[in-house]
Amino acid sequence: MNEIVKIHNDLTNEKLGKMNAKELDLFMSICHKMRDTGTDRVVINFSELRELGHFSATSNKVLAEELIQANSKLLEFKVLIKNGPKTKQRTLFKEFETDEETLTVTCEAWEETAYILTDVVKNFTRFDLDEFVSLESKYAKRLYKLLKQYRTQGTYYTSKENFYRDMNVASTYKNPDFNKRVLHPAVEECRKYIPSLKCIPKKGGRGGAVLGYNFTFDREIPPEQLKKKIKNEFNEFEQQQLDISELEKQILSN
């Protein structure tokens, strides 16, 4: 039997770059709800989306329209599934239906695409989602999502070409304009949640042209390492207490 190969582009960066800020919030909120459901059909109330995406001021009609617009952009994204000589194309969702009467959106992923939706919010906690939707700029949201993928490394390097693509900016965009309108505002806004964030352009070639960008920030300690660290510190403290007690006995005995 031929092995089935799934081929897809980097959805978390390039394809999501076509969405505006509100559409990104909606999509990330839906992915967060679907993260642990696999291919199960999920019905999400508008009230849940309002809470997850901070859409308190958005009317039901507008919210439904924005959901449709977000999915319209996702329909451009295709997953190719190759099985020997056969190639099948899939969109992300098998079903995506908004209902203004019941105030719900019903989503169901294809078996072949469920893992992609899971990858979008992989290791993305509810706390991260709250931070993500509170960012105002679409560029800040894209940068935040990129940086969170490297949360435990504390460093992220990308070429200028790839970064322009991820930010959904034309490669012809002049560097001063890019810095002023995209890079610097995005970095400044992300510092709200990543205070140690720094960006150092990598330059080279004739005239010192920008070749890429190196982002550095305080790395996050994985939960399992954090538990081990706390346990070790507690053991050291206990040992220290024992040593002090022993010292007191020695002093009193003299």
Walkthrough of the structure:
- The chain has ten helices and nine strands.
- With 254 residues, it is an alpha+beta fold.
- The protein has three domains: 4-120, Arc Repressor Mutant, subunit A; 137-216, Arc Repressor Mutant, subunit A, CATH 1.10.10.10; 226-254.
- The strands form three sheets. A three-stranded antiparallel β-sheet has the order 1-3-4, with no helix packed on it. Strands 2-6-5 form a three-stranded antiparallel β-sheet. A three-stranded antiparallel β-sheet has the order 7-9-8.
- A hairpin with a 4-residue loop joins strand 5 (93-99) and strand 6.
- Helix 2 packs across helix 4, helix 2 packs antiparallel against helix 6 (126-134) and helix 7 (138-148) packs across helix 9 (175-190).
Low-confidence stretches: 6-10
CATH topology of the largest domain: Arc Repressor Mutant, subunit A
CATH homologous superfamily assignment of the largest domain: Winged helix-like DNA-binding domain superfamily/Winged helix DNA-binding domain
What general outline do the C-alpha atoms trace?
A: globular
CATH C-level class of the largest domain: Mainly Alpha
Beta-strand residue percentage: 15-25%
Task: Kindly report the average pLDDT value.
Answer: 84
* Alpha-carbon Rg, integer: 24 Å
Number of helices: 10
